[in-house]
Amino acid sequence: MRHQVTPHIRELVASLRRLAAEIQPFVEFASADARSEWSTLQRLWPSNEELGTDLIDLSETDLEWMEIRVRRFGEIVRTLASSILMSAGHGAAPSVISGRAIVA
To answer: 0.90 cut: is pTM over it?
Structure first.
């Protein structure tokens, strides 16, 4: 079923892209399986071209669920990165130092 692109859908897609940009520096600390799942999840997001057609395959609910998953993934990889860097004696990961927190 195709879904009409609404302003809320555009906001959700923009939020997913923003979150992805914030998370990307920490993805290298994730396992190969987690990185693969991350890539797969990102490929599901509507492209600008798809948004331009005003009909997409994902509903607002689908995108809201994805946003929750992305926030949780970000929380996990930031924590993992911080733990790895701390154990290697490099201090906390940059977003941990800046106090940025992601809550699902």
So the answer is: no
